[in-house]
């Protein structure tokens, strides 16, 4: 995908559903659109809480009982399914995808790295993944 290609911002929500909504609202409010709908950025926001296991419960079970982790799906799996829906939308619109997850806990290493492993293999060249904590540190 070309660098001059139109970009779509992908919000992988549902892990703290209000956080995704707040991010989407902030994007709208901070976009200089010259008062026109067409001046806004392209945003695709998927919020699929039902498909996400609890991040904190997953992380705590990982540290206290290794066997329980075999029974509990990593939240990255549900988010990867959500990401694939978003990716299909960006391909349909012929846009590059810049995506992130507005949830601090989701960025814990065991979850974030699994999410990247599940999604990057097929899309590493044409998707920019935004790591919320690293981006904040850069400020």
UniProtKB/TrEMBL annotation:
Gene Ontology molecular function: any one: racemase and epimerase activity, acting on amino acids and derivatives
InterPro entries according to UniProt: Asp/Glu_race (IPR001920)
Protein name per UniProt: Uncharacterized protein
Organism the protein comes from: Pythium insidiosum
């Amino acid at each position: 995908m070309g660098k001059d290609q139109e970009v779509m911002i992908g919000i992988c929500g549902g892990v703290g559903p209000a956080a995704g909504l707040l991010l989407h609202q902030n994007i709208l409010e901070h976009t200089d659109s010259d008062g026109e709908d067409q001046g806004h950025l392209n945003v695709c926001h998927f919020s699929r809480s039902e498909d996400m296991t609890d991040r904190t419960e997953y992380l705590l079970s990982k540290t206290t009982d290794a066997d329980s982790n075999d029974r509990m799906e990593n939240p990255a799996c549900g988010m990867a399914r959500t990401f694939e829906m978003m990716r299909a939308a960006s391909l349909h619109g012929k846009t590059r995808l810049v995506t992130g997850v507005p949830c601090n806990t989701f960025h814990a290493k065991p979850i974030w790295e699994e999410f990247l492993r599940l999604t990057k293999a097929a899309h590493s060249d044409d998707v920019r993944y935004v790591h919320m904590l690293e981006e904040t540190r850069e400020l």
